[in-house]
Amino acid sequence: MSALLSRGEFEARLRAVGAERYHSLHPFHRLLHDGKLNKGQVQAWALNRYIYQARIPVKDAIIVSRLPTADLRRTWRVRLEDHDGNAPGEGGLERWLKLTDGLGLDRKVVASEAQALPATVFAADAYVHFVRDRTVLEAIASSLTEMFSPTIIAERVEGMLRGYDFVSKETLSYFNARMTQAPRDADFALNYCLEMASTRAEQDACIAALIFKCNVLWSMLDALHHAYVEPGHVPPGAFKP
Q1: pTM score, whole prediction
Q2: Per-residue pLDDT tens for 155-198?
Q3: In this structure, are residues 5 and 201 in contact, taking their beta carbons and an 8 Å threshold?
Q4: For the chain, where are the E strands, in sequence order?
Q5: Residues 6 or more apart from 82 whose CB is under 8 A from it?
Q6: In this structure, are residues 161 and 167 in contact, taking their beta carbons and an 8 Å threshold?
Q7: CB contact at 8 A, 22 and 214
Q8: What string of H, E and C letters represents the secondary structure of 77-122?
Q9: Which CATH architecture has domain 7-229?
């Protein structure tokens, strides 16, 4: 049996997952952030990423329903408000649709998910199924990719504003709020995992959950790269620039 990791060792293992596996390292993101994609390829990224964005409040609602105390539910419920807003026209999902609007996409088509890549839908749905079917501890650990997102968000906004004349600060406004929301959410989830994983098996399960989430994000970019960077691989029914 492996020994229980100290709090510092456990956190270091979790952060190492991001250093090795976070999707900021994917070739498609390098192209996106370095201004090397054309408008159609950026549109394809935004349209497909919407699928993931739309699943975020769904998985958060599942986690809220599984948390055992009012204090925990109140804390996690803020994520739902962040993404869905408190009224029509508010929240992160609406801001993502403003991004797709700014890229010239029909928001009804985007929201219908009809033109998304099959692999995108499978990956995003797999994340929802994970938080539904695994332990609450694993579900919360899977959200820890937010520890790594502020760096990629800053890089993305800077690179896209520099590299593409068809985007603006207003188009990318979704990312402004995430610069403060993601660290807040990650701090809570990290402390929860560090405190609640009381056995080595539970610590290893948290690490595996974070690896799973990184794989979800990575596989979505694999699909985008295959369909839109390598010519001739757009599947039937998917978005064609």
Answers
A1: 0.94
A2: 889 999 999 999 999 889 898 888 888 889 999 999 999 999 99
A3: no
A4: none
A5: 91, 92, 177, 181
A6: yes
A7: yes
A8: HHHHHHHHCCCCCCCHHHHHHHHHHHCCCCHHHHHHCCCCCHHHHH
A9: Up-down Bundle (1.20)
